[in-house]
Known about the structure:
There is one protein chain. This protein is mainly beta. Helix content is 10%, strand content 48%. 36% of the residues are buried. Mean pLDDT is 82; it is low at 1-28 and 221-228.
Amino acid sequence: MSVLNKTLFSLRSLFFLFLFLCFSLPVDLYAQEMRKVENTAFAPGEKLVFRAYYSSKLTGNVTAGEASMEVKQRPEMIGGRSTMPVIVLMRTRGLFNLFFRVNNRFESYIDHSAIAPLLFIRRVEEGRYRKSQDVMFNHFDQVAVSNSATTPIPPYVQDIISAFYFARTYEFENLKVGDEFNVDFFLDDSVFVTRIIFDGYERIKTRLGTFNTLRFKPMVLVGTVFSQPYPMTLWISDDKNRVPLLAESGLVVGSVKLELSEYEGLKNPLTSKIK
């Protein structure tokens, strides 16, 4: 795997580490009760834009691409339940576009009450690689039905996009260094478990200002891209929004960084920003 390929693979993992109309869910099924998760962190109308960088001794610091995450204002009804549609776009820029073009789109339709996905849409274009998959989640019968398989799932499993939003609803008061959070997520007709470790409090400077943050280390797969299980560090705002401000990861060759460059529609005041 080339350095460019490794970098782009890791950008997908950072983010995170994103319409199956052929199958319709019975209205009376999702008219049943689902769990209720208290969500004080985000709401429809929120949009986050990130800039991605790659750095190595050979290339220096290079802008690699841009990613956006938007919770649409208008709800969508699926199986008789109201969902928040979340649209995630990832694109390469500049030099990276010449060698390995990326144009990815993910859609996650997250149940308002349960903060769990009912529908996940994945459209991936990375160089010559293409991936298109739609997944419907039946959290009562605990199965996920994609256009390639039907897979048993644990209760309220997340997709790779909804997992990010669900993690923001966690109770982060009185955290201690070393505290762990586990999240089940569904990808490529398989269920995975990621572990997130709280690594402490830190004040950081970004292009948007200086913030008080909570620092976490998400677990990733060790292999040709990452040389250790916790190479990533994620800084989120130490306020009710739990907004990701910065993410960095060391690679086998070089490192990558995602930095928040724009935001709008936050549910709460960004009180973590000190200047």
